[in-house]
Design a protein that fits this description.
There is one protein chain. By secondary structure, this protein is an alpha+beta fold. It has a single domain, classed as Nuclear Transport Factor 2, Chain: A (Roll), CATH 3.10.450.50. 25% of the residues lie in helices and 53% in strands. It is built from three helices and six strands. A six-stranded mixed sheet has the order 2-1-6-5-4-3. A hairpin with a 2-residue loop joins strand 5 and strand 6. Helix 1 runs antiparallel to helix 2. The protein is globular and about 40 Å long.
């Protein structure tokens, strides 16, 4: 199973231990739209809150250094986005993540 497959299963199952195992201790998630950088614990807390519901997740590319995936993400506030994520890996774990997102109107 690839790193992104493990990460996806952990998020879907709200498996905090598996999320912790997937993310490097120095993990950083850059939120360009908010001008913030989230840590490993920030992201795990956010995922465990149930705010993130991912659908139609596709791994577009993955090797030992990077991963790229696309998903439709719906948040508890009702917003849905098409999200493209670029991740770097270090020591077999997700080291950094950046996303580009487009707001969607689903009818």
């Amino acid at each position: 199973m690839t790193i992104l497959e493990k990460w996806g299963k952990a998020i879907e199952a709200l498996d905090e231990k598996s999320m912790d195992e997937c993310l490097h201790d120095d993990y950083q998630f850059t939120l360009h739209s908010a001008g913030k950088v989230l840590s490993k614990s920030d992201v795990i807390q956010w995922a465990m809150s149930g705010d993130i519901s991912r659908d139609k997740v596709r791994i577009l590319y993955e090797n030992d250094e990077v991963g790229v995936e696309h998903a439709f993400v719906t948040f508890l506030d009702g917003n849905t986005q098409a999200v493209l994520a670029f991740l770097t890996y270090k020591d077999g774990k997700i080291f950094t993540a950046e996303t580009g997102a487009s707001n969607l109107t689903i009818s």
